[in-house]
Amino acid sequence: MKRDGACISLWQAGMSDYKGQQKNNIANKYFDVVIVGGGITGITTGLLLQKAGKTVLVAEARNIGFGTTGGTTAHLNSFMEVHFTQLIKNFGEDNARLVAKACRQSMDLIKKNIEDYGIDCGYGEVAGYIYAQDEKQVKELDDIFEGFNKVGAGVSPSTSIPVRIPFVRAIEIPGQAQFHPTRYIYALAKEFEKAGGVLMENCRVTAVEENEILAISSSQGTIRSKNLVYATHIPPGVNLLHFRCAPYRSYVIAAKLKNESDYPQGLAYDMQDPYHYFRTQEVDGQFYLIAGGEDHKTAHEENTEACFTRLEAYVKKFYEIEEIAFRWSSQYFNPVDGLAYIGHLPGHPQNMFVATGYGGIGMTNSHIAAMTLTDIIVRGKSEFEDLFSPNRLKPVAGFNNFVKEAADVVGNLIGGVFSREKLQSIAEIAPGEARVVKYEGHAIALYKDENGELHAVSPACTHIKCTVGWNAAEKSWDCPCHGSRFSYDGTVLTAPARKDLEIIQLEELVEH
Ligand code: FES
Known about the structure:
Layout: E1 30-36, H1 40-51, E2 56-59, E3 75-76, H2 84-91, H3 93-116, E4 124-132, H4 135-150, E5 156-158, E6 169-178, H5 181-194, E7 198-200, E8 205-209, E9 214-218, E10 221-230, E11 245-257, E12 267-269, E13 277-283, E14 286-297, H6 304-316, E15 321-335, E16 341-344, E17 352-356, H7 362-379, H8 385-388, H9 399-409, E18 417-419, H10 420-427, E19 434-439, E20 442-448, E21 454-457, E22 469-471, E23 476-478, E24 485-487, E25 492-494, E26 505-507
Parallel strand pairs: 1-2, 1-10, 2-7, 4-12, 10-17, 18-26
Antiparallel strand pairs: 3-6, 4-6, 5-6, 8-9, 9-10, 11-14, 11-15, 12-13, 13-14, 16-17, 19-20, 20-21, 22-23, 23-24, 24-25
Helix pairs in contact: 1-5, 1-7, 2-3, 2-4, 3-7
The structure holds FE2/S2 (inorganic) cluster (FES).
């Protein structure tokens, strides 16, 4: 199983490629719903819709779980990252209660799926703990505690936490859970296909002609559909939502501990900024401590390897580690007001939908999205529709002109042929390193692979032309603006970009 980075996550290990049903040609076929993206949102939404009687195609550009589902830490939470206290301020108490209700229903749906389909994915219900480590954090924690209780989420003070870390005050949130996310979605994908759904891997959607019946161009031909759902983590193209969601990266290690009794029995979160998070997962009889943190805005950290070093050093202060078996990083999108955007895609016809801006609560939000979108598409409305509406924020003035200009500007390609030798000498990079260099008035993103081969691409992101930065840990070119990511050779890894970075031809030029 492949993922959108060079590091191998715990959820990829031992997962062979998904083996789906034999596919027929989908070109010119009609579906009630086409879902773009085969992560946890796409697969879950597809299953609910197919079970509700719709004909559904899930089109995944790579393999299922390729994006953030393969890189999550799979904490199943009944709360959002922006706590209820803040949600009450932003949206009012009634809406904050509705958020709590949506979270609860999402958790119930995950549990029901696991029970109904007999999914073996290491699911376990545990309590969650948030702990304060100084007086300032204690004040914040008291606020958080009050917010939980105002929405009826039933938390209590706790005198202990499941991690071996000093704390001053803590609260316990019952009814949280954990699981192995890729085993879960592989099983849901099988159920989706069993119910008659069509799942196409290596099917990249490249354009959509917007009409009452959508004509969806893909690498496997044009597909017709009544509805389309972008379950691509962030929608492709240029959309208002790209200016309402900020891309962040988070770092994770999965460690084997020397003492079996040290594995946390619960989910734990400190209150530092960025915060650390901990849990345990048993996979095939082996326990792993999963610890994460060191988050930063995408492409805002020069040395991403150092994020792992700091995280490891922090965990080692408290735990005796036998081996760090896996380490990986992953991307998430923070919404500007604390709630995900689920519903009609702004600026597009009513039959185009989106789910994005999950923050660090992807598992819960994915199932809120699946329930909400299914209700809107099947029944015409959802009780969570207004709450999560992507159109709840007014478009910024002049946005449409901006989109047009931004789209125009991407036509500006570098072209030409550059001397490999000269670039080598300018860049002075060692195997495994990368750099953006200036050469003959052009910016060139260079990566030298482990064999000494130079790969040169334009650093202009094909979304709306911000300059990408190198992510040494995952060996990718990441865009700081809206989170598009590209592999070292320029291939798109994650939306919103649809096109690969321009490849720059390097030749052995002889100078006279
Ligand atoms: Fe928008 Fe790169 S992701 S410019």
